[in-house]
């Protein structure tokens, strides 16, 4: 997919606009200015996606081909729903035959063919409710979850890494053989145990930074392709002799 053009656009709004509202704090004004001048935001509006995040998934897919052939998808941290919109489309999910389950603790407007749970993914009931909602074995688990930021870099990093780890364990528990797992992580060190778990259970593990992910953001994605399957009890526990594995 080509990146959106920086110059002209078809939204009728010019890029390079300045926000003049005097009542806004400087930081809010800067955010709003960046948002309305962001070509991905404008392209999302044009193409009917709820968030610019859609292009992160589409760009990752363009290079790594994780969506093609996916029959059931679980979307973690789904609101406002652009990844679920894509998931519903690629799986051909309908209200009669739901193939996508999405979870977020924020409210999310309905998407046809998506079973939405408004729940914390860390809630003990969440895994089973997601499995019930997706209606069969998923072949793709995608997570764009990021913990609400506190402003303290180390705390934010640890919280989001924890979400990523819980999501990885969930993926290993639910995926069909050959399935894939994609999760948001932060630059600055993916935990060794998490990488070991993924490398033990998937054929390929890579870090990805799509163009739609802002260059100044520490966000990046961890992609684990080709789930090896749950062969015997204890096979997917993450316990490994190969402790020195790194990405
Ligand atoms: C970047 S947004 C996701 C955007 C989404 N991929 C899209 O395309 O619209 C991250 C979401 O993760 C959610 N989130 C963070 N922690 C969560 C948790 N423990 N359980 C459920 N959702 C969570 C947030 O509420 C937020 O809506």
The gist of it:
This protein has about 250 residues and is α/β, with parallel strands linked by helices.
Describe the structure.
Mean pLDDT is 85; it is low at 1-12 and 233-247. It is globular and about 60 Å long. The protein folds into two domains: 12-47; 51-246, Rossmann fold. 37% of the residues are buried. β1, α4 (82-91) and β2 (100-104) form a beta-alpha-beta unit. It has helices at residues 26-36, 39-47, 54-64, 82-91, 126-134, 153-174, 192-201; strands at residues 73-76, 100-104, 114-118, 140-143, 180-186, 202-208, 219-227. The chain is built from seven helices and seven strands; from the N terminus they run αααβαββαβαβαββ. Residues 50-51, 53-54, 77-83, 103-106, 120-122, 144-147, 163 line the site of S-adenosylmethionine.
Number of helices: 7
CATH class of the largest domain: Alpha Beta
Low-pLDDT residue intervals, each spanning 5 or more residues: 1-12, 233-247
Counting DSSP E segments of at least 2 residues, the number of strands comes to 7
- The CATH topology of the largest domain corresponds to Rossmann fold
What's the rounded overall pLDDT mean? 85
User: In what order do the strands lie side by side in the largest sheet?
Assistant: 3-2-1-4-5-7-6
Q: Which ligands accompany this protein?
A: S-adenosylmethionine
Number of domains: 2
> Alpha-carbon distance between the termini?
26 Å
Beta-strand residue percentage: 15-25%
Largest sheet: 7 strands, mixed
Please give the radius of gyration in angstroms: 19 Å
Principal-axes shape call: globular
The named CATH superfamily of the largest domain: Vaccinia Virus protein VP39
């Amino acid at each position: 997919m080509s990146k959106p053009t920086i110059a002209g656009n078809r939204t009728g709004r010019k890029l390079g606009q300045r926000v003049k509202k005097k009542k806004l704090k400087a930081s809010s004004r800067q955010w709003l200015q960046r948002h309305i001048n962001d070509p991905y935001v404008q392209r999302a509006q044009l193409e009917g996606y709820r968030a610019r995040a859609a292009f992160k998934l589409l760009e990752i897919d363009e290079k790594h081909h994780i969506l093609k052939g996916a029959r059931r998808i679980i979307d973690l941290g789904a609101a406002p729903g652009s990844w679920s919109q894509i998931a519903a489309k690629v799986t051909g999910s309908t209200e009669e035959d739901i193939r996508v389950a999405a979870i977020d603790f924020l409210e999310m407007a309905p998407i046809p063919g998506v079973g939405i749970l408004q729940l914390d993914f860390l809630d003990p009931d969440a895994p089973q409710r997601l499995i019930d909602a997706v209606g069969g074995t998923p072949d793709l688990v995608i997570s764009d979850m990021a913990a609400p930021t506190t402003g303290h870099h180390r705390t934010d990093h640890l919280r989001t890494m924890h979400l990523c780890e819980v999501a990885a364990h969930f993926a290993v528990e639910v995926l069909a053989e050959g399935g894939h797992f994609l999760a948001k992580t932060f630059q600055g060190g993916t935990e060794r145990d998490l990488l070991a778990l993924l490398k033990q259970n998937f054929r390929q593990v890579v870090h990805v930074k799509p163009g739609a992910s802002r260059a100044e953001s520490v966000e990046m994605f961890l992609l684990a392709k080709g789930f090896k399957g749950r062969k015997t009890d204890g096979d997917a526990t993450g316990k490994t002799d190969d402790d020195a594995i790194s990405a």
